Amino acid sequence: MKSEQMWVDWCKNQFALIKLGGLWVVPRSGLSFRKTLNGFNLVDVATPVSEPFGQYQKTDFQCIARHFKEAGLKVTDQQDLLSQINGRN
């Protein structure tokens, strides 16, 4: 199985495991998502302890969104939480 197809399958399985409205937290980056009808919406971002970690969170979100898009699902940041990372104390 190709690596990309493995990620597509993983995304579809992850989506199927969580009930509508359920929460999915990504421990490596502290991103929290709520399941929607067609994907996941970002609902919380752990406060980064340093600027490099804040940039990692943004990059991780983009990677997650790309893989879920390939699986036919949307990953959104409707509250624009990622843009607020640099302004946190």
Order of helices and strands: HEEEHE
Mean pLDDT, all residues? 91
Structural class: alpha+beta
Fraction of residues in helix: 25-40%
Q: In what order do the strands lie side by side in the largest sheet?
A: 1-2-3-4
Unreliable segments (pLDDT under 50, ≥5 consecutive)? none
Shape: globular
Quick gist of this model?
The chain has 89 residues and is of the alpha+beta class.
Question: How would you portray this structure in words?
Answer:
- By secondary structure, the chain is an alpha+beta fold.
- It has helices at 3-17, 51-70, and strands at 23-26, 31-36, 39-45, 74-76.
- The protein has a 4-stranded mixed sheet, with helices on one face.
- Strand 2 and strand 3 form a beta hairpin.
